[in-house]
Amino acid sequence: MAKHCKRVFAALTFVTLTLSTSTAFAQQEAPSVTLFKNVKVFDGNTDGLLDLDVLVVGNKIHKVAEDIPETGTWEVQAGPSGPLYSEIHSGSSGYTFIIEGEEGTQTVELSPNVIDGGGRTLMPGMIDSHTHFNLSMDGGRPGMEMARWDYMAGHASSAALEWFYDGFTTVRDMGGMADGLRRVIDNGLMEGPRIYSAAGMISQSAGHGDLLFESQTSPQQSSTWRNGIYHIANSPDEVRAAVRRNFNAGATHMKIMMAGGVASNKGPFEASQYTDAEIIAAVEEAATRGTYVAAHLYLDEAIRRALDLGVMSIEHGQFLQEDTAMLMKEKGAFISPYIAAVMSEDILTHPVYGNPSTFEYARTLMMKEGTKNFAEVIKKVKPNIVFSIDIVSTNGMAARHHRDHEKWIFADTFGNYETLKAMTSTGGKLAALTGGSNPYPAPLGVIEEGAYADILLVDGNPLEDITVLGGNPSWFNAEPRPRGIKTINLIMKDGVIYKNTLQ
Fold it and tell me: Nearest 5°: phi and psi at 287?
């Protein structure tokens, strides 16, 4: 809708398509209209499929109800996050937009795009709450350090397309990505998901996010540091400066490294990183922009400390115990675990993590031993858990296999309903935690009135069969597959259809 739009009236028809235009309204467009009928709706929250129709007007879901008529009248007014639509009464004159502006009146009549879902499942676009698109090139840390920015950006763009055509209409990038790719996608220059980005990972020296090699004596010698992949911060003031640099790069939230990692040889796996004062500095500085801090860690005592200091998202955290999970739930915080690494035996066939000669092997065994109670704790306490495919140094076919297996393992561990909720409505709640830094202020991950029209049509019932969303019990020996999931017949994002194999 145009900036000076005061009022729009709309009525819905299935038969007419008439456009009445004038130079005075050259920049004004009537919103597109799509009506989904004959679908079974998974709304992101309900454990079951609902016999409802879904009407999309513009980039928002306008109405979710039984037997939505193909005619009607609506008033459309500008709101803080875009047009707002409120039904007035039924009508039969067609879908008519009467736009009153400062220079006169324009009338536009058009037919809706009525889509017969053929009994398929209509569900929200999926959300991956832990990605690393800029780190998706091969070669590990040396590969990242040697890569030029254009090579890195090319891989990130390829990853965005891969995730999008697998049905992920939103991702949360957890380190290494500023807002450049998001702006390219949002400006309509390429296809891809909505991106929430943490910008550079914030690490202490010798922390999990310190990517310096032994031959490099300062961050300025590191191309990954110059590319904003990470920041080294060793005091509260340096942490504040790093947070501000990330905001300057368009970050929507922050990520600090509070522990060692399985794939990092800097410091013990169980090392506790950052002082209370440094963590509080990050939390306070993020709060000035209305957003939150996420922390990379595993051990239960570290999770409790992070929660007590105001961290709202725990990345990994598989050593979580029941009392700490209850504290997490009480505070409304989130956990974003990586399930396949600890629940799948296939990890021990990996050439690095399953190789007894590597330090990663010992840490993998430690992870598997320390996380034996994780699933039981999550099932009992039910804190906010989101779906995550934490993957680096991988793209193309290997990444497809990784995503597919993660879906399978998550569903096998927690059940299909909890998996779908984690990758839709709960992921949407975490996205909304960015508050004043949120680039997408309407609800995500739900099929409800006023939510963004990010929608999938799936051939099958994912509440019963996770394979219809691509889930695969095989990982490294999975059969090759093309880009995209065959049983996801339609992908809509922001009210625009990008894939439709129904026609």
Answer: -65, -25
Single-letter amino acid code for the residue at 145: E
How far lies 36's CA from each of 56, 299, 493, in Å? 8, 46, 14
pTM confidence score: 0.89
d(CA 478, CA 340): 15
User: H or E segment at 62?
Assistant: strand 60-65
Q: Tens digits of per-residue pLDDT, 181-240?
A: 999 999 999 999 999 999 999 999 988 888 777 788 788 878 888 888 999 999 999 999
Q: Cα dihedral sign for 455, 458, 460, 465? A: negative
Q: How far apart are CA 52 and CA 29, in angstroms?
A: 29
Helix (H, G, I), strand (E, B) or coil at 159: helix
Is residue 291 within 8 A of residue 265, CB to CB? The reply is no
CA angle 314, 131, 216 (to 5 degrees): 90
For residue 500, give Cα distances in angstroms to 143, 188, 420: 37, 18, 22
The type of residue at 66 is E
Q: Give the largest CA-CA distance in the chain.
A: 76
- Reference 8, options 61, 62, 63, 85; nearest CA is 85
DSSP H helices, 423-492, are 425-432
The two three-digit tokens of residue 220, written as one number: 């300025």
38: number of Cβ within 10 Å: 14
Residue found by looking up tokens 């296939």 in the block: 346
Predicted confidence (pLDDT) per residue in 87-133, tens digit: 433 344 445 555 455 555 555 555 679 999 999 999 999 999 999 99
